[in-house]
């Protein structure tokens, strides 16, 4: 299914990051307690672009049954952070400086899918676009949130 001509879930059409970068991103993601607690998983790692999916279940909803804004925001933040991280050299880490998210519609569906895309990457700061889609069982998808994020590249402390 496409959104404005883009095949968001068809990863065969999208460039993949190198195996080394994919391994580094997945290993970092696997250390995130919140993502594990929410039940989120990475579904695509490309240069400057990461997709994260969160399946629907009662623990990630609010009182009306929609995905909670906190869960929506959390996967958007991580998708953007890891999109930036794909472009960083070995030995660097990423931290979010700030992000703003607009909740455009109630987030409903079988799952929500966050897409983080690098807009500009520099030596210190990186700016990413954040999008979250509500995805129905039949493949129908709707943009439910979008935003922008600034991240900082930091050197990993010597161990």
Strand content: 35-45%
- What is the helix content? 10-25%
Q: Which strand order spans the largest sheet, edge to edge or round the barrel?
A: 1-2-4-5-6-3
Quickly count the helices. 3
Q: Count all strands and give the number.
A: 6
Mean pLDDT: 91
* N-to-C SSE string, H for helix and E for strand: HHEEHEEEE
| Low-confidence residue ranges | 1-12
Shape: globular
Largest sheet data: 6 strands, antiparallel
Structural class: alpha+beta
Give the termini distance in whole angstroms: 46 Å
Cα-based radius of gyration, to the nearest Å = 15 Å
Protein architecture, described:
The protein has about 160 residues and is α+β, with helices and mostly antiparallel strands. The chain contains 3 helices and 6 strands, in the order ααββαββββ. Strands 1-2-4-5-6-3 form a 6-stranded antiparallel β-sheet. The chain is globular and about 45 Å long. It starts with 18 loop residues before the first helix and ends with a strand.
Considering the chains and any ligands shown, give keywords for the structure.
22% helix; single chain; disordered N terminus; globular; 159 residues; alpha+beta; 6-stranded antiparallel β-sheet
């Amino acid at each position: 299914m496409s959104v404005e001509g883009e095949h968001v879930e068809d990863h065969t059409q999208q460039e993949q990051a190198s195996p080394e970068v994919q391994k580094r991103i997945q290993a970092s993601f696997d250390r995130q307690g919140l993502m594990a607690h929410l039940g989120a998983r990475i579904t695509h790692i490309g240069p400057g672009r990461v997709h994260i999916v969160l399946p629907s279940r009662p623990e990630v909803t609010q009182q009306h049954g929609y995905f909670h804004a906190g869960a929506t925001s959390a996967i958007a933040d991580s998708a953007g952070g890891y999109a930036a991280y794909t472009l960083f050299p070995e030995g660097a880490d990423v931290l979010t400086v700030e992000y703003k998210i607009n909740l455009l519609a109630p987030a409903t569906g079988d799952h929500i899918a966050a897409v983080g895309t690098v807009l500009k990457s520099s030596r210190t700061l990186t700016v990413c676009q954040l999008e979250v889609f509500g995805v129905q069982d039949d493949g129908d998808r709707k943009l439910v949130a979008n935003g922008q994020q600034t991240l900082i590249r930091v050197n990993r402390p010597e161990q």
